[in-house]
Amino acid sequence: MIKVNKDETPGVLKAAWLIALVTIASKFMGFVRDMVVANFYGATLVSDAYFYALQIPSLAIIILGGVGGPFHSAAVAVFSKLIPDFSSKPDETVNKLYNTFLTVSFLFFAVCAILGFFFADKVMGVIISAGAPELVTLASEHFRIMSPIILIGGIIGIYYGLLICHKQYILPNLSPMILSLVVIITISLVHNDKTGMVLACATTLGAICQLAVQFPKIRQIGYRIRPNLDINNPQFKNICELLFPAILSSTIGQISIYIDMFFASTLKEGAWTSVVFANRIFQFPVGILVTAFLVPLFPIFSRLAGEGDLEAIKKYFNKGVGVLFFVGIPMFILILLLAKDGISLIFERGAFDAGAVVMVSEALCYLSISILPYVFRDSITRVYYAFNDSKTPFIIAMSSIALKAVLNWLLILKLDMGIAGITLSTSFVTLFNAVFLGIFIYKKVRLDYKSLFFNLLKMFTAGVITFTICWFICLACDRLVFPKYIFEIFKIVLVMISASGIYSVLNIVFKMDYAKELLARVWKR
Known about the structure:
Blueprint: H1 9-41, H2 45-64, H3 70-79, H4 92-118, H5 120-127, H6 133-146, H7 148-165, H8 170-174, H9 176-189, H10 197-221, H11 234-264, H12 271-307, H13 310-347, H14 354-367, H15 371-386, H16 391-414, H17 419-440, H18 449-478, H19 484-509, H20 513-524
Helix pairs in contact: 1-9, 1-12, 2-6, 2-7, 2-11, 2-12, 3-7, 3-11, 4-7, 5-6, 6-10, 7-10, 9-10, 11-16, 12-13, 12-14, 12-15, 13-14, 13-15, 13-18, 13-19, 14-17, 15-17, 16-17, 18-19, 19-20
């Protein structure tokens, strides 16, 4: 077992900067992909069909197999305790465990992919039962084309986890760029794709390339493929004890999305596309933030839990979540103030019209309410996984399903909030999960919430003042007369600079260490 240096904060922050830069590049490419998709397909029946069909494949490749997903988390939690140090090559025991994990995962996801292919119409018929027949038919065809992605998901997750265990942070966060690049090139070359089939094919090809780019590095580290089914291996049982509840938890979490898909199918055309784009935009800054800090922290949590050093876990948790809160608040402010202008500037062209801008910006603003609960939930979930406990997050996720259905019914059908009701209910459910995860972690470690939330109160106060001042700046900008794109760029840049400056100064006045340390590092660089 590796002994962890109890003051690895500089190393963690250095890794966080590196991961942030790589993730920004990958997310930016994903953003360009979404711009190209929006340009060619808009918010229409075709785009709705594609995004409905993509949901299950994305469950495999992003939720289950992505960074922070169950397969990545299980690999880090178990393998990080077996390798003697970050630079060591895996021995025969570790290689055998790797092959058991890989073989079982391959067989499981292969069966799921085959079932998805042959029963695509049944699956889409259930998920979007309130949708038009032509929508269900088109989504079924898209799903058949993308069903191989299901097979790829878990394997990518295992590779991600192993790479992180060996401090290979760049490739796991950069490889999603491959999928985006393949989609961009393919649909840009084909201009008359009226059914979205080319888009579905490009997505499948991109996922295959994403897996292929991981393999050489895994082999270079020292892992060799020798399929076996040694399911009686005690370490494999540890993986299963962590993995299966986490898979169920993630899958249960997806049920909330399927509930959203059902309610979205009762709304106007383009509703689900708008929710998807709002989530993609939300994940651009928030995903970078969470990935940058939690990827290097998770192996440390895991090792400290193995050593029983609870005080160090408290220290790293408060440090990590505090920084996430500090950066998350101005993100929330900027989304509320600039959502419509930003979405118009980036997406409003081609088939993506002003009506689509309104739908996406409305969904995004209500979703942004979940930023702080989101980063807290994802952070504390890593602590549970470090203690090999994925059952508690699973139980809490299950209990939130009924809440999600009731909130959607209330906000969409009774209060007639439409698309906004879908994302607002998501924010409430995220808050519910964060609160109860925070309560039940006390059975394992008594985290120092007093100092964490006292600092949050000071940051929130700075945020309220910043929002108020920047709101008046927005009102002043709206009185100016400029060409559309010039005005949007000017307004966005001015408000971003103003918000960053005001918020940082206020936090320094409030004697927040996060502000001082972050500004010192930015100034140094």
